[in-house]
Amino acid sequence: MAYVNPSGEFTRDQRYIATRITADGRDGYPVEPGRYRLVVSRACPWANRSIIVRRLLGLEDVLSMGVCGPTHDERSWTFDLDPGGRDPVLGIERLQEAFLARFPDYDKGITVPAIVDVPTGKVVTNDFAQITVDLSVEWAKHHRAGAPQLYPAALRDEIDSVNEVVFKDVNNGVYRAGFAGSQEAYSTAYARLFERLDWLSARLEGQRYLVGDTITEADVRLFTTLVRFDAVYHGHFKCNRQKLSEMPVLWAYARDLFQTPGFGDTIDFGHIKRHYYEVHRDINPTGIVPDGPDLSGWLTPHGREALGGRPFGDGTPPGPPQPGEAVARA
């Protein structure tokens, strides 16, 4: 399976299933506790967003979660972590089965995160950007007591503006560098990435969070790229002007979030490294997964408390991960 675009610039296929699960059910899928299953892989940064948001908002009891293994083939993600290789709720071996159940001729990417309608076994949506926003807005009735406002109405325009440039230059920017098929395309992506990281460093030097004084959707989206930077993007994707740990402001910001309940406790560095180094064989033909880097620095003091801010606003941190959802630490 090839990922590099031999003609030059990598372009992400963004043809996602736009169906939404809403409070009023206007797309035919109303919010209902226990009806849907969020399918993720801890390796994937796009899926990691939904894992974090679900946990911060306390939706575990109303939206179950199926976890795929860290690798996949051309046919899609598999439930190889589960007994018998089948998801215990959906009863399927591959996420592909849920997509084909709804769209028998489906010809687009079978991606995580995806939300599946349990009674029918059919995928509802894999629109990762909309999924987390809807968890904040449409599922509000089912949030835990003390859940933070990750997408507050008064800040939505600013959050959307920040998210747009971060997606183009950072979230997707690392892929544009890593999957470039020409020197020119790579160099362009590399320059855009680090110009944006410098912009983010300047923005975060005097404020604890990206928008306002609390954690928002914008922080979740940036974090899932930063947490993978040194482990994968710096070497595997050739984003090597500096490691994250050599960018003082962003390194402290990322550690602050990592040490915040709901962020670092969703991260499985083993899965992350296995996915990129084993799956992208056109970049790493041997499939060898590096032993490094040393990841112990994520738990060192960050000093960001001095900037003030209230991580959860008027709310409270989430409790510990539910049984069966905790990430094993090496």
TrEMBL record:
Binding residues for glutathione: 77
Residue ranges constituting the GST C-terminal domain according to the UniProt record: 152-279
Catalytic residues (UniProt): 44 (nucleophile), 175 (proton donor/acceptor)
Region of interest: Disordered: 304-330
Gene Ontology CC entries for this record: cytoplasm
CDD domains (alphabetical): GST_C_Omega_like
Lineage top rank: taxon: Bacteria
Matching InterPro entries: Glutathione-S-Trfase_C-like, Glutathione-S-Trfase_C_sf, Glutathione_S-Trfase, Glutathione_S-Trfase_N, GST_Omega-like_C, GST_Omega/GSH, Thioredoxin-like_sf
Membrane-spanning segments: none
PANTHER family recorded: GLUTATHIONE S-TRANSFERASE OMEGA-LIKE 1-RELATED, GLUTATHIONYL-HYDROQUINONE REDUCTASE
Protein name according to UniProt: Glutathione S-transferase C-terminal domain-containing protein
Originating species: Actinoplanes aureus
